[in-house]
Design goal:
heterodimer, A: mainly alpha, ABC transporter involved in vitamin B12 uptake, BtuC, 14 helices, 0% strand, B: alpha/beta, Rossmann fold, 9 helices, globular
Chain lengths: 339, 261
């Protein structure tokens, strides 16, 4: 009886996960093709497919391969990175409302990147490294503020500290970029609201590498996250090295978020919404949850970017505006469920 | 076995030490109970074992080896702990939750082995948690949640078991079932350390009782050594009598009404 019941449970958990993953991958594929086809110049699907292969009209090939494909891919990678980062932060902080943007981690990364640019560091690698440093600094600040005022496991204090650090970050961005000419490529708005409009294949490569390294490390540590999510004492009882592993995961998640900021500026709420959707779809352990989040996050951001460049065309809306419009109602609904 | 030697713990904000020179042994094949009023240092003792509070003095040895030489996973293979408080903030299906008891035995990528499955099935059966299997940890009653947490600790299959008030929220039948289970596990050769407020049940089941009061050992020994009216009345600061239960023959504490003093 026990064995049969157990087998049934395990089977039912798997049986919701596999269709959820297949559906997510299918949605991602469809959205990617649509995002390649739709834009200021709308292209028939067969032209998109042949352009991807390098054949067809030279202009079409250029639009698809040099402009839209890197943009779509970068959006997908940023969405996957933000979602995995959010999922890992929620687990290690035992807080389903944690995510890099609300925790101020992304804001810190943006300040690092903006200050590097303002001081004349032009290389994308240098800007990314500065974003890592800014994220690490913000992570430390938020933890310290939250610890001083009431412990970092206190939902409200942690988010409050994150919001404060985030607001400070936005102020620094505006002041640092105030001297720049209005038409410079990455203005304050680009950083504060996010965009993938200047995506390049090099940027895709950098974001892909960051996702592989930091996302891969988080997946490797997923079992530790399962245990840490129980709380400090239960985690210690089950053989987790609580303090060290929490720090490692916090740092890895922050670096992953920082890489998305260097690639696309501040895109909020993706890291909050997507892991909660993955859990609702039955992915409770962190490895399946983060994998599912990566796919759904990628799909969500490809969709958000498609909206960003089409709803007010030819004006391009900031990516972060779309994700906030989707994310804030979700945040409020989740908050209501928690309290 | 576990041996605590002259343990001193001073929390930074507190005026007096939470534990002040506490020594006790948890022997294989026996159930050792730590009792005492709220704030007497019982849970702090568990926290020292989990290394969540630093020792200001004394030492702890597990199986004659200094606790400080254990890495986290080695410790969890030697000692299972059911901590006092735990909230299902990110709920899991019950079986996945109990499977986390196998964490110290599993690698980062290893699949669930038949050993893991057997241990989990056995633990769920021993803890009497079969009827919770179709649910998630946020859909359990207080008593079911306790049993599921005990099942997770049993799935660790460590030779030493430490439980911090495991029968809080349990009704009489489930409370007795837990004491019977701990008794059976002790007779099976395990070392069991039980933190409890249930003095009368502890008096019936424990082979050794340690009474803590303000961070110090106020009395220790058999139930007859510890269950004395004068000692308990002083430690709990409440009028009471200790009788001998006619049905089971063990000492039994009976708190009195203060107005009748």
């Amino acid at each position: 009886m026990t064995n049969k019941g157990a087998a049934r449970n395990a089977a039912s958990a798997r049986s919701t996960l596999v269709p959820a993953m297949v559906a997510g991958l299918a949605a991602l594929a469809v959205l990617c093709v649509l995002a390649l086809a739709i834009g200021s110049v709308s292209l028939p699907l067969q032209d998109v497919v042949s352009a991807l292969g390098g054949s067809g009209d030279a202009t079409v090939v250029s639009i698809v391969r040099d402009s839209r494909a890197p943009r779509v891919l970068l959006a997908a990678l940023v969405g996957a990175g933000l979602s995995m980062s959010g999922g890992a932060l929620q687990g290690t902080l035992r807080n389903p409302l944690a995510e890099p943007y609300l925790l101020g981690v992304s804001g810190g990364a943006a300040v690092g990147a903006v200050l590097a640019s303002a001081f004349g560091i032009g290389s994308a690698f240098g800007v990314t490294m500065a974003a890592f440093a800014g994220a690490a600094f913000a992570t430390l600040s938020v933890s310290l503020i939250a610890r001083v005022v009431g412990g970092r496991t206190d939902t409200r204090m942690l988010l409050m500290a994150g919001v404060v650090v985030g607001a400070f970050a936005n102020a620094v961005i505006i002041v640092a970029l105030s001297g720049l000419p209005a038409d410079s490529l990455r203005g304050a708005l680009w950083w504060m609201m996010g965009s993938v409009h200047d995506a390049s294949w090099a940027g895709v490569g950098r974001m892909g590498a960051a996702l592989a390294v930091f996302g891969g490390a988080l997946l490797w540590l997923a079992r530790e996250l399962d245990v840490l999510a129980l709380g400090e004492e239960p985690a210690a009882a089950l053989g987790a090295n609580v303090d060290r592993t929490s720090r490692q995961i916090f740092l890895l998640a922050s670096f992953l978020a920082a890489a998305t900021v260097a690639a696309a500026g501040l895109v909020g709420f993706v890291g909050l919404v997507v892991p909660n959707i993955a859990r609702a779809l039955g992915a409770r352990s962190h490895r399946p949850m983060m994998l599912l989040s990566a796919v759904y996050g990628a799909a969500l951001l490809v969709f958000a970017d498609l909206l960003a460049r089409t709803v007010r065309s030819p004006t391009q809306l900031p990516l972060g505006a779309i994700t906030a419009l989707i994310g804030v109602p979700f945040f409020l609904a989740r908050l209501r469920k928690l309290t | 076995m576990i041996s605590f030697r002259e343990i001193v713990v001073q929390y930074p904000a507190a005026s007096s030490p939470a534990l002040n020179g506490v020594s006790l042994n948890v022997e294989p094949g026996s159930l050792t109970a730590v009792v005492g009023p709220n704030g007497s240092g019982k849970s702090t003792l568990v926290r020292t074992l989990l290394r969540r509070v630093p020792l200001n003095g004394g030492s702890i040895a597990v199986n004659d080896r200094a606790l400080s030489t254990f890495d986290a996973r080695q410790f969890a293979r030697a000692v299972s702990v059911v901590p006092q408080r735990e909230e299902p903030t990110l709920p899991l299906p019950v079986r996945e939750f109990v499977m986390l008891g196998r964490h110290p035995h599993r690698g980062a990528l290893s699949a669930v082995s038949s050993v893991d499955t057997t241990a989990v099935d056995r633990a769920i059966h021993l803890a009497g948690a079969e009827d919770t299997l179709s649910r998630a940890t946020d859909q359990l009653s207080g008593g079911e949640w306790q049993r599921v947490r005990i099942a997770r600790a049993l799935a660790q299959e460590a030779p030493i078991l430490v439980l911090d008030e495991p029968t809080a929220f349990l009704d009489v039948a489930h409370e007795m079932a837990v004491f019977e289970l701990l008794d059976a596990l002790a007779k099976d050769g395990r070392s069991i350390l039980l933190i409890s407020h249930q003095l009368n049940l502890v008096a019936r089941f424990a082979s050794h009782i340690v009474l803590l009061h303000e961070g110090k050992v106020a009395a220790h020994g058999s139930s007859d050594d510890v269950m004395r009216g004068a000692i308990l009345e002083r430690v709990y600061n409440w009028p009471l009598v200790v009788t001998r239960d006619p049905a089971v023959g063990a000492p039994a504490l009976l708190p009195l009404r203060r107005s009748r003093r």
